[in-house]
Design a protein that fits this description.
mainly alpha, Arc Repressor Mutant, subunit A, three-stranded antiparallel beta sheet, 4 helices
């Protein structure tokens, strides 16, 4: 496990190939960032992911602020391609 400059964020090659995660979980920083980008307030994220604390959420968002390009790359790498999404599950746009 590799510590980062953020107390609650670590990297472990055995977990998600070294993607930044919340210490003590398998939750990637990108998951918290994606919830926040969907409009969920940081204070509400622990209600959706009860195994993370508010301090961990804020530290993950701080990590994101310092490493946006890295996290955006992980988000894009894990995005489900449009052609694999069933049309019935897509929002009307």
């Amino acid at each position: 496990m590799i510590a980062t400059e953020h107390h609650y964020i670590v990297k472990d090659e055995a977990i998600l190939g070294g993607e930044p995660i919340v210490r003590g979980t398998r939750t990637p920083v990108r998951a918290l960032v994606e919830l926040w980008r969907l409009g969920i307030a940081p204070e509400e994220i622990p209600a959706h992911l009860p195994h993370v604390t508010l301090a961990q959420v804020f530290d993950a968002l701080s990590y994101y602020e310092d490493h946006q390009a890295e996290i955006h790359a992980y988000i894009e790498r894990n995005r489900v391609p449009d052609e694999l999404i069933h049309p019935a599950s897509k929002k009307d746009g």
